[in-house]
Structure prediction request, 703 residues.
Amino acid sequence: MSKIMLMPSNINQIEENINDVDSVLIGLNDLAINMPSTFSFDEITKISQITDDNNKELFVAVNKNVHNNELSLLEKSLLKLANLNVAGVLYYDIAVVNLKDKLKLPYDLVWAQEHLTTNYATINYWLSHGVKYTLISSEITLDEIIDIKKQTKSKLIVPLFGHLSMFTTIRPVVNNYLEHFKMQHQGHHYYISKEGKDYPVVANKEGTTIYSSYFLNGLEESLILKNEGIDYLLISSFNIDNLKLKEVIKSFKIVNKDNVDQMAKNIYNLFDGKYDKGFLYKETVYKVKNNE
Amino acid sequence: MNSGIKNEKDNIIKKPELLAPAGDLERLKWAIIYGADAVYIGGPAFGLRANATNFSFEDIKEGVIFAHSRGKRVHVTINIVLHNKETTLLIEYLKKIASLGVDAIIVSDPTVIYLAKKHTNLEIHLSTQQSTLNKEAICFWEKEGVTRVVLGRETAKEDIIDIINNTNVEIESFIHGAMCASYSGRCVLSNFLTARDANRGGCSQICRWDFKLSDENKKSLSGEKDFTLCAKDLTMLKYIPEMIDIGISSFKIEGRMRSIYYIATVVNIYRRVIDEYCHNPKHYQYNKEYERILSNCANRESITQFYDGNYYSDCQYYNGREEMSNQDFLGVILDYDKSTSLATIEQRNYFKKGDIVEIFGPEIATKTLVIDEIYDENDNQIDIVRHPKQIVKIRINEQIYPNNLMRIKRS
Prediction:
């Protein structure tokens, strides 16, 4: 049975949905990026209380690119996380793997190199280094995900609902633009638009992230993935209001082969059909000359 | 720890490697002739420039023979993000690459590291696609058998110093060329907007597109020009002496899809700067003329970017990119007859009598002259050379050599 993992935007969302999810994935302030929100240690302590009390798992993302001068913060933070009941820590930067070994950290790691987690051989490579979980790339197909599951014992987390991050930079590209044309900063949330599509942008002290225009809706595919024994189905709350999020989580929880059409219709109505299947059925090309 | 760059008399005893891009065999030869210590190339598969010409196995073999005969090295990129179906093809590919005498492979996926170690003796360099920015990550890769790390372009000088002082691998840094707007490996705009896989060699450079910007309520925030993510290019010309002193092992030039003129020009300038500084560090003087030549050669603006920690305002484009079609490159010297002082030239861009031109090459100081006599293949005097690859002769009163290049002199 696949577990439902929620990436919440705030603690209220966790409290409101804790009965319907199996695990919660949150980002740590200053060391996590591309999450709906990040949390302080005090907040994470409170969240771990909620997950512990409800017998749910807590995963924490420490998934930014770590610059050399941030290593001391990283080390202190990883040690502090060892005092909480954390099931796994997600990493992008390989420094985390080295530090887990060096500091003998008790929790498991999740290989979460965003767009690079695309094949079973490399998942097994990390497994052989003690990394027990993988957050699968959102740019591979459903068939590839299923094939990976068959070829690895790593526990797999598959993004199945929400906006997907497409671009991450340390550069403050939006603020630079606003300053250059003498406009006021407008907060952290923006959109860039092209050919009728709007792409959410988050600009903060960690840099700039651009998200997909439509969000991924893999409700129907969740049935296939459950059958294949995928361990976690990931739902992101980014840019989704609380009521809709609740509906989505419930749908993923109760969907089965008998009610899937009705559930899918509900989601369609909830979001006016403004979602897509991402790359679940779309293989990307790279050798253009041979593919055209 | 990297050390031994200077001896007790402050003389440099170990020059850094100058590493040039080569999109095909012709470019490989030009890069080496113009002073590269090593070239990096893409093989028939698994490289991040899937739409470049790239090298066949036969080309690689010929390139390796050419390079090794001149004491130079060849590195092959195997740095795409692998999908399931490719993992089974890798072992044979790696064995084949190793059999060609290649000196090193540049990889990003750890599966390639594992298989290369198991099945070959190839030197393994970690690609910038891993965005390695710190010494802890490098310590991990060192244990895995990586002997060189190409740092993420976002690494600042102080971080590089600390990394070099606390690790045992060679450090390779970019010194010139185009920049990703994102962290390398963390951009899939191309996948989403054009279905071309950025991390598998299909990047369609969406970062160079224009977009409308709006706030969170979708109210327009457009300035005089549309929003773009586009970063200016990198140039580290001014910092080369400092980078040598720090102990960076390899200076990398970006641009496997660039022209032979670009490669020859950029390699030639950095070769000169490295040699001039290493020859006499105490009396080295920055040559502004080199900056002018690089600036004229590139068709985009260049800037220092992250090295000095100041990457905020000047590092990106705001007013649209001005990409000038570069017609500076006038011709290739095929031969020089000392007895007649006539140089045979293959034309690459229009030139005419009266033009002020420069001739440069690895063996000569740059020569400036006015073209006053031009002859066609039948020895008829002509005024204009307008046909691509037209063979002509011009009078030059100083010794020049085959494979020297001629460009227009611009202020």
